[in-house]
């Protein structure tokens, strides 16, 4: 059994009562978060979901990372398919007593990953040209490929600046990061995807960020304030089959 699955005391609810279907690793993850008015998100989130807030404020995040070693439960790694780069845009929601994540968009530089995630989870994946460089800092640039998908560009240069820590329950950092399911809509149906990983080993970070229309529905003035920045070097995650919500 994978050692990560033995660590469950941090979870707000139990693991699903079925086998996981996929695992992957996330490397050099950066969490970029801004507080935004609840009203700015409402019409862009499925009406079945309640936007989650922290002390009355909604939050939106840009999260870039490397994906590595993706594989199914009973399948080996496939060279050229198991690793790619991703930049997602997300907010935080609640449904049926659970807290989780809602993705506005997910840009990836691997066509099969884009098509597979759309087919299995119905997530709003877009193909993008993404470049990642690791020096004494990390740099990622992403430009969406199809003009019909909307212009979307982001450039990030980031580096961790503190020691590793675990966010304490009740803090904003814990609220933003410790999420163990996602929701999406497939037609008129609300779908939940459960995930599992150990607690986030966070480091506060510095970053230079430039983005163009990555979040087109949001007044860009909200994104000119200094964001809250956190970095994680590595995390292994497990995914369960999508489940239709009642």
TrEMBL record:
It holds the Pfam family DUF2071. InterPro entries: ADC_dom_sf, DUF2071. PANTHER family: DUF2071 DOMAIN-CONTAINING PROTEIN, DUF2071 FAMILY PROTEIN. This is DUF2071 domain-containing protein.
